[in-house]
Amino acid sequence: MEKNKLYQSFEHVFGYKADSIFFSPGRINLIGEHTDYNGGRVFPCAITMGTYGVVKKRADKVVKAYSGNFPDLGTLTFSLDDLTFKKEDNWTNYLKGMIKYINESEGGIDHGFDLYVYGTIPNGSSLSSSASLELLIGVIVKALFDLRIDRLDLVKLGMRTENEFMGLNSGILDQFAIGMAEKGHAMLLDTTTLEYEQIPVDLPDHKIVIMNSMTRRELVDSEYNTRRKQCEAALSDLQKVVNVSSLGELTEEQFDAHQQVISDEVNRKRARHAVYESARTLRATEALKAGDLNAFGQYMNASHLSLHEDYEVTVKETDLLVRLAWEQAGTVGARMTGGGFGGCCIAIVEKDQVEAFIEQVGTDFEQAIGHPAEFYIAETENGTKEWV
After folding, report:
1. Which CATH architecture has domain 3-200+382-386?
2. What is the Cα–Cα distance from 362 to 375, expressed in whole angstroms?
C-alpha cells in the first residue's frame, strides 16, 4: 500500500491533509484453535495483510470515520459524549468500544478525530479484521493523546471490546497476536498466565499458503458463544473430581481418566478438543524449534481433524480445502484457521510446489463447490504501529 495514496484518500474524504498513518496486521494461527478462552496454548503470528488508518485530531468531541472498503456507508459520525453501541453505527462500534474502555481505564481522550480506514484483510476470512481494527484504534489514540497505557493493556481492552461491547465471547488470541507480534516469529502463548515465547518461523524452503474458501462465516457469532458455554459446562463437571480452573490446565491423561464425569456427550467432545489441542500446540512448537517441520505438519493435520470431528467448526468448503491440500505434492501440513464456520485454511507447502499447489487445489475446489477460492502467501509482520 502506498503512503501517498492513503494520504490522498483521506484528503479526498475530509478536505484537508492528515498528520499520520498507522498499520495494524491481521493474523493466522498456526495451531491452537479454540483453546484461548479455555486457558490453553496458542501459536499465532501476525501477517502483512492488515488495516491502515490515516488520522488527524479534531478540536471538538466528534469522531468522523470513513472506510475505503465500505464507501456506500459514507462518513460515519459519533460523539465522545455518547459511546453506546448502536447497530446503525456499523463498524465504528469497534472504535466506540475501544475509546470507551480506554477512557474508563486511563482517561485523556478529550477530543475527536477524523479517520480514514482501509483494510487488505478479506471480510469474513477468519484472519481477524476486527482485532486488527481494535488494536489500530488503541495505538492511534495512544499516540494522538500521548497516553501512557501499555501495549498489553490495549490488548486486554481490545478483547473486552470484542466480548462486552460487540458480544462475541472470544479469547485473547487475536488481540495478543496482533498487538505483540514480532516479524519472523510466531508466539507460543499460554492464555492462562499470558506468558509467551517468540519462536522464529524460519522456512527457507517452504511457504505458508492461506486458502480462502470465500465462504462467509454466517453462524460464527452464535456458534462461537455456544462452544464456549459447552466447554464451561464440561469444565464444571470435571471440577467435581479435578482441581483445575480451566480445561487448558488438564493433561491428556487426566482428561482420559475423568472424561466420563462429563454428563453430556457433545460437551465431552468439545472438552476433548480443548485439552488435546493445547497439548498438541506445545508439542508442535517444540518440533518447530527442533527443526522438525514434518512433525509440525502432522500436528497441524491432527488439529484440523479434531476441529472437524470433536469441535465441529468446519464447513464443507473449509474441510474440502484442507483435504485437497493434503493430497498435493509438497504439502507438509494443512488445517483450518480462525473461528471456523467458513473463512480460511492454511497449508505449509514446499516453495517449488506452491504454484502447482494453488493451481490444483483451486481447480478441484471450484469444480466441487461452484465458486473459486482465493490464495495468498503469508508473510509475517510486526505488531500494530505508526507507519513512519
Report:
1. 2-Layer Sandwich (3.30)
2. 8
